[in-house]
Records
---
Amino acid sequence: MERISVFDIFKIGIGPSSSHTMGPWRAAQRFVREIDVPQVTHVQVELYGSLAKTGKGHGTDLAVMLGLNGDDPVTIPVEDVQANVARIEAEKSICLGGKRTIPFNPVQDIVFLFEQSLPYHANALVFRAFYTNGEGVSHTYYSVGGGFVVKEGEQNISSDKELIFPIDHAKDLSKWCVQEKKNVSEIVWQNELCWREPDEIRTNLMLIWTAMRDAMYKGCHTDGILPGGLEVTRRAAPLNRKLLAGKPYRNAEEWIQQITRGDHSFQDILKWVSCFALAVNEENAAFGRVVTAPTNGAAGVIPAVLMYHLCFSRSFLKDDIVKFMLTAGEIGSLFKKGATISAAMGGCQAEIGVSSAMAAGALTECLGGSYGQVMMAAEIAMEHHLGMTCDPIGGLVQIPCIERNTMGAIKAITATQIALEGDFTKAKVSLGDVIKTMKETAADMSNKYKETADGGLAVNISVNVVEC
Ligand code: SF4
């Protein structure tokens, strides 16, 4: 079974999609590392299945170009994303791994195979490199969701590290919590220590939180129309202005202080949670910097729920950020191991549903819930996303995706409140049951609803998407 760290689940990167942008980007980088760059005269990429069908809208071609070009999604300045792509397209050349410039015409060298799929996974890419001696090499990679990449012939294992508390199923997590008399985040912390020093874990988790906070702040202060041709207007910034009603602030810290101050009505809190989620996913749709959590399409749910706790819970403590991330990460891992976090395999239940379950469990942990209540909250949140399809209009991660994050966040908060008032020993459905059910539902779901834009809203809403 896979050993997955919280840092495999939460990854800083560029929108709009973990499976269709981040995964292909990482695959391209990996391909460059695995070939003899000084000998290469030409490269080509073939996109299969869902990567072909919604790749344009999800920026797969852009991600592949930047990955081949030696750009990294964590460090590239956001403003360079479109600029570097524009340069590659204009000059019809790429600087392979940042080391060797070769001819590259994206129109000819990125091939969208709309009607072909490879058997292992719906998101497949084949990279080919041609060498000066007339020979060449090709590698096949699969973007299996959440930015994870598997190479043909490799097992889907991110780490073979032996952990103190191995967890393959939800019942393993319960067992360790009972046996060790620890809560969920304490068990996960012990496992993370097998990979990293305590300071490194804390520092990196706070960096992840800072990236989430910055995405919310940027989204709440950026007006305009999202790219891609759907003409979707950004809503977080006007909502932020309305809710703050002219209160002054100079930076993200002061912005949070202003949100936190004063009494808040139920309606105001609902609007703020939506505003936080909208902000992140508008940034995601605009090729901005977000944190994959567990995917990019669902990147707004966890920041919105953690920000809700930070701004509106009287019991919030700074250490809750670490607790929240550890708990959410473990719940995301359980879904990845037992079902899927790829919409191309399981529809939107695998994205928004999983992020909502992660946030619900994490919020419950921070609000003092027992291990059983944490798992109960995660179960409740997923139970009410089961069967949710993926049908992005125009293949863009905008409609229904952006609003869907607001719904995932609110469901997570509701699930937490139900679980905190509940007796988990009397629950009829366990977290393990709902993970198994989600897996079976994913298997039964028509391919039309698995990130292909072949069904649902994607075919019922008449739009004129201009290619850009
Ligand atoms: S509909 Fe859901 S799964 Fe599909 S792209 Fe949008 S957020 Fe992702």
---
Amino acid sequence: MTESRQPLTILLASPRGFCAGVDRAIQIVERAIERYGRPVYVRHEIVHNKYVVQTLEAKGAIFVDELDEVPDDRPVVFSAHGVPKSVPAEAGRRNLLYLDATCPLVSKVHREAERHHASGRTVILIGHAGHPEVIGTMGQLPPGSVILVEDAAQVETVPVPDHANLAYATQTTLSVDDTVGIVAALRRRFPEIHGPKLEDICYATTNRQGAVKAIAPHCDALVVIGAPNSSNSMRLVEVAAANGCHKSRLVQRAAEMDWQWLDGIRRLGITAGASAPETLVEELIAACRDRYDVTIEEVRTTEESIIFKLPRALVA
Ligand code: SF4
């Protein structure tokens, strides 16, 4: 007699997982290995996902923290999060062959910051201290030209040199709803502040949060496949909690799933951060099927068709 298993309905958020910027960054490393041979050096995790990093290592990538770990005769790729200007400058000084995998949507924020600076404005960057994207964006301008704020409370007290000459920019992977509040606080305190028409939060972050918002109220628990240092993944956990699914957590892979945590759960939401490959979602669903009688409902809130071009050096 076969043991009857508990039913589990999986609400699968869509869009989820890889965005166009992550896809492009991974392709840059793969194509660089094909073109220049092994090893190709990569400064920092190309995207924040251990599985992706290990897969690229197996193909011939070597991940390093700084350029001084890269030999003069090997190519180096800069990660999708963007780098301070000093990094390509140093690579140029050493005549290194470098490929920039900075997401074009992050580069757009860099150009905006430069434009404001050239117009004499101090830039207030909304973001998380220490995140590589924030370090990269702040590093587009001379030291001291960008002021970082992390939340609305900081906006109330942050000292600025000239209230009438300010602009703001945002990290691309923030919570859409939290950022609305921070921008509102900025506009209240500094009514003349310049900023983007919409925030700089990217389409992929916005869409993944939108899909989680759609399923969260219908889930007893929700799992985000992603890495703890992935900003957009962490925001998805928070968005689920803020939208009716208080039992939400980040899991890197099925192997680390705490199955007791699912006791009594009938409807499980699953999504993945922009740097998490679909194979890890499939792995988690397969692990659920081993334990439950699974039914899958995919909830798609929007279609995505964005593709970013590869650097010319890799397609010619
Ligand atoms: S999350 Fe957004 S900004 Fe970051 S790589 Fe993806 S598309 Fe680009």
